[in-house]
Specification:
single chain; about 375 residues; alpha/beta; 10 helices; Rossmann fold; 9-stranded mixed beta sheet; two-stranded antiparallel sheet; binds S-adenosylmethionine; elongated
């Protein structure tokens, strides 16, 4: 198998194993290659032997509980879901040690039924991580798979979503490149010589509303005109792509009216107006993503449902360009393929040699 570094569960002396892993990781980091470093073995054992704070980001889709059997057994076959949750949590505790303080961990989990009852596996695992291990959960993303799979039940809805949690180790200063994931902003344009924002706001309507307002004082009106002109100038200069103006008694406020809850409500009462400014670099993605699973995308190979597209935002936002992202249950290597495409190094761990070979061939572009 060309270009692949496998570290087998060879020597039983753990210090030798750890030294071998550490050296492989160091050499890999120092190399020019974006081909993944593949480590064969049980995720918990391998992670225990990796150096602390050596990985920039992690993303994974572990086995479902009780749904699928993988070649070598492994996690997912526990009779009781509580044992499954404990086994996963043990792996993620070790992952936390291996992750740099600035690192992020993205966890995709599907749910399972037991005796017709949805178990709530994703949240059970998530609470273990936040409540017992000290992870900070920044987002729970709904991955809308758009179409549900085969489902013959007649007494409940189809299941079409899975969850993707984003965890970090520290409250601030974790690596996050929000600009790398913004959608391209629409640009302002000139219509009949006047500048108009991306969504057609020219300011004419706001000016009339300020003028005719019976609710704003003269002073407030003057200030509103000045700030509107300043905002329009920013649109003209390309510093702002779009904005909305909220004027007291004219627009419906975009917040709670309770001043205790909203600083905006206070601003509206005291000043008479405020602006909603749209970021010049575009808007950031929201936490519901519509992505069709890999195995229904009619690609040539047959891969796990977890799609390459699901990894794009996590990698771009939370793995630095010269960083390494790790997947402790890498299977056929989707996270690794995505990392390679985005110019990042990656480490994949799996208990199955067959899957690692598959991942390797995928990254070589052979399948
Ligand atoms: C849902 S699949 C991962 C799919 C993967 N995202 C892909 O792109 O193919 C889960 C993987 O976990 C592996 N696995 C199960 N138990 C494991 C363990 N204890 N240590 C390492 N890998 C394990 C299985 O072999 C399987 O490949």
């Amino acid at each position: 198998m060309a270009q692949t570094t496998f570290t087998f569960d060879g020597p039983s002396d753990t210090s030798i194993v750890a030294a071998t892993y550490e050296q492989s990781l160091r050499e890999y980091r120092g190399s020019q290659s974006h081909f993944p470093l593949l480590l064969l073995g049980d995720a918990l054992t391998v992670l225990k032997n990796l150096p602390a704070e050596s990985i920039d980001a992690a993303m994974t889709s572990p086995p479902y509980w009780g749904k699928r059997e993988y070649e070598n057994g492994g996690i997912g076959l526990e009779a009781d879901y509580r044992d499954f949750v404990d086994n996963l949590a043990a792996v993620f505790e070790e992952l936390r040690r291996v992750l740099k303080p600035t690192g992020s961990f993205w966890l995709n989990l599907g749910d399972s039924y037991e005796n017709k009852c949805l178990v709530g596996i994703p949240w059970r695992v998530a609470f273990e991580l936040t409540d017992r291990q000290g992870w900070i959960m920044r987002n729970s993303v709904v991955w809308n798979k758009v179409k549900s799979g085969m489902d013959n039940t007649k007494d409940r809805l189809g299941n079409v979503h899975e969850l993707l949690f984003h965890f970090v180790k520290q409250h601030k200063d974790y690596y996050y490149d929000a600009d790398a994931i913004r959608s391209k902003p629409r640009e302002s344009k000139i219509i009949n010589g006047a500048v108009v924002s991306a969504t057609g706001v020219s300011g004419v309507r706001y000016k009339r509303q300020i003028e005719l307002s019976t609710d704003l004082s003269l002073e407030q009106k003057e200030r509103a005109f000045v700030e509107l002109e300043r905002t329009l100038a920013e649109v003209r200069e390309g510093k702002l792509s779009d904005f909305r103006m909220i004027i007291r008694s004219q627009q419906r406020a975009t917040h709670s009216d309770k001043e205790k809850v909203s600083g905006r409500a206070k601003e509206l009462r005291e000043k008479g107006f405020y602006f909603l400014r749209y970021h010049p670099n575009g808007s950031k993605p929201a936490d519901v993503w519509d992505i069709i699973p890999e195995d229904t995308q009619r690609r040539t190979g047959h891969f796990a449902p977890y799609p390459v597209d699901l990894c794009r935002i996590p990698i771009l936002a939370t793995c630095p360009a010269d960083g390494v992202i790790l997947d402790p249950f890498c299977g056929t290597g989707t996270t690794l393929v995505a990392a390679q495409k985005l110019g990042r190094k990656s480490v994949g761990i799996d208990i199955s040699l067959e899957y690692l070979e598959f991942a390797s061939e995928r990254c070589l572009g052979l399948i």
